[in-house]
From TrEMBL:
Residues 32-51 bind DNA. The keyword Acyltransferase does not apply. Residues 9-69 form the HTH tetR-type domain. This is DNA-binding transcriptional regulator, AcrR family. It comes from Romboutsia lituseburensis DSM 797. Transmembrane segments: none annotated.
C-alpha cells in the first residue's frame, strides 16, 4: 500500500502534468483551474492544497528547472582551459528539453530566461573574472551577452529539431565567442 507521502507527491505531479499539457497548447492567461483539475481528475480544493493559483504552478515548475550552483560544474573545471563549458550548458538544456523548449519559446515565460541566466551568471563571473580588464558594470554586460546568446542559439536549435549535430553547434558557438562574428566570416 502506498504511503501518504507517495500519494501527495503523485497528486501534485498529476496537477503539474495537467497544467503543463495545457500550457503547451495555450498561453497561461487562457488556462483555468477548472481545466487543470478536470484534466488531472481532481476537484478544485485539491488544487488549492498544492498551489495558490495557476501562476504558482508555473513558478514551481520553473524553480525546479533552475540549476543551483552545486548542480553546476566546479570552478576548477571552468578554469582548466579558460573556456565556457558549452557542452555542459547544452546537456542542461537537453535534460530539461521538454520544459525549456516551451518556456524559452515564443509563447513561453520571458522571465524564465532571466531566472536561468541569473542562476548561471555567478559561476561564469567567478570563472572569468581573473581574465578581464573590464570594470564590474562592463563585465556584467559581457556576461549577459554570453548567456543571452547561448540560451537563444540553443532555443533556436531545439526549435529547428536539432538540425545540426550537437558537436557542430558547440563548434559554431565556441568559434563566435573566441573570434567574434567577423572572425567567423573571414576564415
Amino acid at each position: 500500500m502506498k504511503n501518504n507521502t507517495e500519494i501527495v507527491s503523485k497528486t501534485k505531479q498529476n496537477l503539474i502534468d495537467a497544467f503543463w499539457h495545457l500550457y503547451c497548447e495555450k498561453r497561461i492567461e487562457k488556462i483555468t483551474i477548472k481545466e487543470i483539475t478536470v484534466k488531472a481528475g481532481y476537484n478544485r480544493s485539491t488544487f488549492y492544497e498544492y498551489f495558490t493559483d495557476i501562476y504558482d504552478v508555473l513558478e514551481q515548475i520553473e524553480n525546479s528547472l533552475i540549476p543551483s550552483l552545486d548542480e553546476l560544474p566546479p570552478i576548477s573545471i571552468l578554469n582548466k582551459n579558460n573556456e565556457i563549458p558549452l557542452n555542459m550548458f547544452l546537456k542542461l538544456y537537453e535534460q530539461n528539453e521538454k520544459y525549456y523548449s516551451v518556456l524559452l519559446g515564443d509563447n513561453g515565460d520571458p522571465a524564465f530566461a532571466s531566472k536561468l541566466k541569473n542562476s548561471i551568471k555567478p559561476l561564469l563571473k567567478e570563472a572569468l573574472v581573473k581574465d578581464t580588464k573590464l570594470n564590474d558594470l562592463e563585465f556584467d554586460f559581457v556576461l549577459e551577452y554570453i548567456l543571452s546568446s547561448m540560451i537563444s542559439i540553443m532555443s533556436y536549435w531545439f526549435k529547428n529539431d536539432k538540425i545540426l549535430p550537437s558537436d557542430k553547434l558547440i563548434f559554431i558557438m565556441k568559434n563566435i565567442m573566441e573570434n567574434g562574428i567577423q572572425g567567423i566570416f573571414n576564415k
